Amino acid sequence: MPLKSNFKIDLTKEKHLSSLLDSYYQKHLRFYNFKRMHALKQQLTGIDLVLKHKTSPQTFFLDEKAQLDYINESLPTFAFELFYQKNGMDKPGWLFDSNKVTHFYALVTSIFSDEAGKYTSCNITFVNRRKLISYLTKRGLTQLFLKEVITNNKDFHGKLILENLNPKTEGYLFFSRKNKVESPINLVLKLEFLCRVGVARKFV
Asked: CA 150 to CA 160: how far, in whole Å?
């Protein structure tokens, strides 16, 4: 049976989730106004939200990433996309993609739903993209290093432990070669770990 892409399904779910997220932003963003971006051009550059400070010229671009495959579950990790396949070609994932202008990721986890298409609660963790990439670089987890690891394991599927990370408390690589049509390769990191090293903080 051929694998099916979940891209269109995920877009529908994201639209339903956005109203819940907006309610959280309205309640908890004390010093910022926000505007949701709907144009595909902006979303392709990693902008779902624009945050503007109420009393200064500060402006930040947020890219929302939601665990929509795990409704009514609480996972301690989040998957950062390194590579995926399109038309048989490897494409850069959103973490290291130089075309993205994202300042912060809004990682949406622990998404709960009482009925189909209606989400009632979730957690949001903000991750500073620049700080994350800088920290990974200091740990030797550069884009070049990770690409070499992936190239050396081109037929691998599943969890791959890295010497640079403690798999129990920090993270690991995960290859989805057989169960997803895009065959994404992700750097899976513990949310608590990201907060502990100062590249992330829990928002709600």
From this structure: 10
- 204 residues of the chain, pLDDT tens digit each: 344 445 445 667 788 899 999 999 999 999 999 999 999 999 999 999 999 999 999 999 999 999 999 999 999 999 999 999 988 888 999 999 999 999 999 999 999 999 887 999 999 999 999 999 999 999 999 999 999 999 999 889 999 999 999 999 999 999 998 778 889 999 999 999 999 999 999 999
- The domain segmentation of the chain, as residue ranges, is 7-202
Whether the model pTM is above 0.85: yes
Burial class of 105 by CB neighbour count within 10 A (0 to 12, 13 to 18, 19+): buried
